[in-house]
Amino acid sequence: MEPAAKPNRIIHIDILRILSIVAVIALHTTADVLIRSTDFNSASWWISNVLNSIARFAVPVFFMISGAMMLKVHVTSYRSFYIKRILPLFIPLLCWSIIYDLYTQFYILQVQTGLWEYVTGFAYRFITERNYVHLWFLYAIIAIYMTVPLISKLVKVCSEKDLRYFIIGWFSISVVYPFVAEIALRVTGQPIYIPIMNKIHLFSGFLGYFVLGYYLFHYDLPQRVKHVLFNIGVASFFITPIATYFVSQYKGSLDELFYGNFSITTFFMAVAVYLYYQNKETSMNEKLNHKIQAVIGSLSKASFSIYLIHLLVELAISRRVEVDASFLRVGASLLFNVVAIFLISYVTVKVLHLNKYVTKLLFGGKG
Question: What pTM was computed for the model?
Answer without folding.
Answer: 0.93
